[in-house]
Structures are given as structure tokens and as C-alpha cells.
Amino acid sequence: MLRNQLNTAMKEAMKAGDKEKLSTIRLILANIKQKDIDGRTSGGQDGLSDTQILQLLQTMIKQRKESIQMFEKAGRDDLVQKETAEVQVIESFLPQQMDEDAIKNAIQSVIDDLQATSPKDMGKVMAALKDQYAGEMDFGKASQMVKHLLT
Q: What is the CATH number of domain 100-150?
């Protein structure tokens, strides 16, 4: 479904002549295709699921935000603007992000379901969160919250 949404958005960007959006969508699709190929060579997988695509999009956003910080330090405003525009395009394909309270409630629910009691259970909790809330949650923040709640 998400793959179809990306292809439709690419066609719309072509028709509209939106070069920045088009190049970002092509970059996303190229990353998805590369992951599909990697999956086939290592395990015979048919292609990325929507959950895996959402995780890929989040990774792409994280990479761009790190680049933005480096470009700001280097005084490269032109590259900061380019990366920021790419982040906005990529974020448009993600579901609405959870706020801090919603993240905390989701974490508490997963902890209760798994009966997690110690920091040793953090891996299980994070895996369950990634399965249930891919694309909706900032897992960097979630990891810190889980660590805090399990100590």
C-alpha cells in the first residue's frame, strides 16, 4: 500500500514539475528497491512490508537530521535547506507521529503485556514497540522512556 502511495506521489510530482519532491521520492524508492534486492539475496523475501518501509523512512529522516546538524556547524545553509526539504517530503509519507504522552502510554501498555520488570527486558519491549508502532513513534525517545520505566 505504501509502495503504491509512493509511486502515485512520484507520478504527481512529475506532472507538477516539482523537482525537489520528485528527486526525494526517487531516492526513497531506490532505497526500498535496494532493500528488496538485499532481502532476496539473503533470504528469498518478496519485498519490504509497509512496516519495514516505515522503518526505512524513519532511518532516512534520522540521517538527514544528523546531516543538517553537521551542515549548520559548517555554515552550509544551502545544504541545510536541501536536507530540510527532503525531511519534509519523507515525513509526508509517515503516519501522524505520537506525542510524548501517547508514547508513554503505549510503552506502559507493552510493559504490562510483556510483564517486563527489569532493564534486561528492554530488548523485548523495544521489539514489540517497533512491531506495533512503526512510523508512528520516535524510537530514540521511546528507548530513553523504556529505560527510565524499567529501572
A: 1.10.10.410
- The string of pLDDT tens digits covering residues 35-60 is 888 877 776 667 788 888 888 998 89
Residue, of 45 and 2, whose pLDDT is higher: 2
pTM of the model: 0.73
Mean pLDDT over each residue of the chain, to the nearest integer: 89
Amino acid at 126: M
Cell 512490508 belongs to residue: 49
Where are the alpha helices (H) located in 17-138, listed in sequence order? 19-43, 50-74, 77-91, 100-114, 122-133
The candidate with the shortest Cα–Cα distance to 145, out of 113, 110, 115, is: 110
**Cβ distance 149 to 112 under 8 Å?**
no
Domain boundaries, the chain: 2-91, 100-150
Would you state the CATH architecture of domain 2-91? Answer: Orthogonal Bundle (1.10)
CA 148 to chain centre: 23
Is-contact 90 24, C-beta < 8 A? Answer: yes
